[in-house]
């Protein structure tokens, strides 16, 4: 079996490491991979996992690579390509891929979407609010005595949630995301919970 893994972090290294131990895997690529991934050997034939210099968000090049090399399975690690619709794209082209489609990936790519979904369907969750306005956000955080999580709405590569234990920390977190835009486009809206 030939497998393509998309991503370059520790999660993807763990996936490659485990897949390399399968007696069924004969070829393994990782795009873009990393130096550690490149050291993994397949149990089946001793071949090394091959890193491919294609970024995880470069969906057209990933698709072209998969169409050329014909992996029996593509496994996606990072959130960004999932949010961009890599699963939808590969499935439209008849390629087998593991991961949530673009619609399902919204649960990770938008904290606002997730919060509204939980509220709509009565899924228990902490009291929360969605904000774009700094003053309103700080007032809400103050009503929670600053003991809250301030979450950037979009994808921030696993770093978009700031846990606060005081009003001062909450105010700083709100400024960090909404004023200083430390998380880029993920910082246009926040959820405070």
Q: What does this protein structure show overall?
A:
The chain is an alpha/beta fold. The protein has helices at residues 10-20, 59-69, 79-84, 86-92, 102-109, 111-120, 134-143, 167-179, and strands at residues 2-7, 27-32, 50-51, 73-76, 97-98, 129-131, 147-152, 161-165, 190-192. The protein has eight helices and nine strands. It has a five-stranded parallel sheet. Helix 7 (134-143) packs antiparallel against helix 8 (167-179). It is elongated and about 60 Å long. The model has no long low-confidence stretch (mean pLDDT 94).
Number of β-strand runs: 9
Radius of gyration: 20 Å
Fraction of residues in β-strands: 15-25%
Backbone structural class: alpha/beta
Strand order of the largest sheet: 3-2-1-4-5
Keywords:
193 residues; alpha/beta; 5-stranded parallel sheet; 4-stranded antiparallel sheet; 9 strands; 39% helix
Quick structural overview:
With 193 residues, the chain is an alpha/beta fold.
Q: Strands, helices and their partners?
A:
Layout: E1 2-7, H1 10-20, E2 27-32, E3 50-51, H2 59-69, E4 73-76, H3 79-84, H4 86-92, E5 97-98, H5 102-109, H6 111-120, E6 129-131, H7 134-143, E7 147-152, E8 161-165, H8 167-179, E9 190-192
Parallel strand pairs: 1-2, 1-4, 2-3, 4-5
Antiparallel strand pairs: 6-9, 7-8, 7-9
